[in-house]
Amino acid sequence: MVVETSSASVSDGMEEYNHLKLRLLVLTLASGLVIGLVVLGVYGWNIALSYFVGALVGAVYLRMLAKGVDRLGNKSKSLGYARFGLFVILIVIAAKSSQLQVLPAFLGFMTYKIAVIATLAQDLTSKPHSR
Fold first, then answer.
1. How far apart are CA 81 and CA 36, in angstroms?
2. What is the 3-state secondary structure (H, E, C) of 69-85?
3. What are the residues whose beta carbons fall under 8 Å from the beta carbon of 57, sequence distance 6 or more?
4. Is 60 a member of any domain?
5. Per-residue b/e over 14-26, b at no fewer than 16 CB within 10 Å?
6. Where does residue 96 rank: exposed (0-12), middle (13-18), buried (19+ CB within 10 A)?
7. Three-class SS of residue 3?
């Protein structure tokens, strides 16, 4: 069985993939900002700062993850230790700092998951299923 793909369909697929990466990043930053402002209003500056720092590191993590996915076709042997290290550094800095707290920083870091779940839910509800 030979599968032929036109360069137009590959190009369309890459364009859609790049749009998805941008949408995830923008949604991550926007949700981090909105949630961070709510945290600021409810809990105050110290906890909000921890959340904002975590959300920013989470956005960087998402960007690094996207770059790792981009390299998958190039037979990359990297296992993503830098991404895991980024998370570890965030937690260590939050634990050692008198300005940051670990739990809000961790929850801020996990903000990128909101973007992933929201995008998945939108895609599942908007596209017809074929079986």
1. 28
2. HHCHHHCCCCCCHHHHH
3. 86, 87, 90, 105, 108, 109
4. yes
5. eeeeeeebeebbe
6. exposed
7. coil
Domain encompassing residue 87: 45-122
CA distances from 28 to 7, 50, 63, 75, 97 (A): 31, 16, 10, 28, 25
Domain assignment present for residue 17? The answer is no
pLDDT digits 0-9 by tens, 35-84: 999 999 999 999 999 999 999 999 999 999 998 888 876 666 666 788 89
Domain assignment of residue 16, yes or no: no
pTM of the predicted protein model? 0.83
Task: Count how many domains the chain has.
Answer: 1
Q: How many CA atoms lie within 13 A of 78 on its CB side?
A: 16
Give the Cα separation of 108 and 129 in Å (integer): 34
Residue 88 included in any domain:
yes
Contact 58, 28 (CB under 8 A): yes
